[in-house]
């Protein structure tokens, strides 16, 4: 299945060095068109139109979420822990009226690239972040409260729960400022206390913003 990529700047899901770009074709002959950082152009003749999402909903990119002419438009987000390399999981985001044919086409495209696909409803945070960010936030708060050291909490999760890395180790590697952005988006949307950014993430975000301001 052929696909074209229309983008502006670096894609979070598929950075410029990613092999996914090598097989892209021109938009004229493509079965699927992928938009990243660019306003999408609806086209009913395509098997699927895919929009790369950040923290926002797919609905923000649609003129009318109840329009059947947009039934082939889906969102997607490849899970990435901050500045780590993208993972092998892509969440494909559907609307209630999304066609099954478009979902099948998107799934086939990503699976042919060696990725695993999960289908998600159009909600901020989707599946992974809503599951794991409260865990990371709790670990950071426990560290502040003196429950245990970072090394001991990470070791407990790795040996006791079989995790490949500890929650604090993982957040620090990905970047606390990136964690702050992701968890703040959930907290601002849902107001759930477990999504509230912890102190260390707030400090890291403020420092990053101050450094950016100094460079301007």
Question: How does this structure look, described?
Answer:
By secondary structure, the protein is α/β, with parallel strands linked by helices. It folds into two domains: 3-121, NAD(P)-binding Rossmann-like Domain (Rossmann fold, 3-Layer(aba) Sandwich), CATH 3.40.50; 128-210, N-(1-d-carboxylethyl)-l-norvaline Dehydrogenase, domain 2 (Orthogonal Bundle), CATH 1.10.1040. It is 38% helix and 15% strand. The chain is built from six helices and six strands. It has helices spanning 100-112, 128-145, 150-161, 167-174, 176-190, 199-215, and strands spanning 3-7, 32-36, 48-52, 73-78, 89-94, 116-121. The chain has a six-stranded mixed beta sheet with strand order 1-2-3-4-5-6, with helices on one face. Strand 5 (89-94), helix 1 and strand 6 (116-121) form a beta-alpha-beta unit. Helix 2 (128-145) packs across helix 5 (176-190) and helix 5 crosses helix 6 (199-215). 31% of the residues are buried.
- List segments where confidence is low: pLDDT < 50 over at least 5 consecutive residues: none
Going across the major beta sheet, what is the strand order? 1-2-3-4-5-6
Which CATH first-tier class of the largest domain would you pick? Alpha Beta
Helical fraction = 25-40%
CATH architectural grouping of the largest domain: 3-Layer(aba) Sandwich
**Mean pLDDT across every amino acid position:** 94
What kind of sheet is the major sheet? 6 strands, mixed
Strand share of the residues?
15-25%
Q: How many beta-strand runs?
A: 6
Radius of gyration: 19 Å
SSE arrangement, N to C: EEEEEHEHHHHH
Corresponding CATH superfamily of the largest domain: NAD(P)-binding Rossmann-like Domain
So what's the overall shape?
A: elongated
Number of helices: 6
How far the N terminus sits from the C terminus, by CA atoms, comes to 44 Å
Structural class: alpha/beta
Number of structural domains: 2
């Amino acid at each position: 299945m052929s696909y074209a990529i229309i983008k502006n700047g670096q894609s979070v899901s598929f950075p410029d060095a990613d092999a996914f770009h090598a097989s892209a074709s021109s938009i004229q002959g493509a079965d699927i068109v992928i938009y990243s950082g660019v306003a999408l152009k609806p086209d009913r003749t395509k098997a699927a139109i895919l929009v790369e999402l950040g923290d926002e909903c797919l609905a923000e990119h649609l003129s009318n979420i109840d329009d059947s002419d947009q039934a082939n438009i889906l969102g997607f987000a490849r899970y990435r822990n901050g500045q780590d390399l993208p993972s092998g999981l892509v969440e494909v985001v559907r609307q209630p009226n999304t066609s099954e044919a478009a979902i099948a086409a998107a799934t086939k495209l990503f699976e042919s690239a060696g990725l695993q696909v999960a289908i998600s409803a159009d909600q901020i945070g989707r599946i992974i972040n809503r599951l794991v960010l409260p865990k990371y936030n709790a670990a950071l708060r426990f560290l502040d409260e003196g429950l245990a050291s970072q090394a001991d909490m990470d070791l407990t999760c790795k040996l006791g729960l079989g995790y490949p890395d500890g929650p604090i180790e993982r957040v620090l590697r990905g970047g606390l400022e990136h964690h702050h952005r992701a968890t703040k988006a959930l907290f601002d949307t849902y107001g759930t206390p477990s999504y509230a950014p912890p102190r260390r993430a707030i400090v890291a975000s403020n420092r990053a913003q101050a450094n950016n301001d100094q460079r301007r």
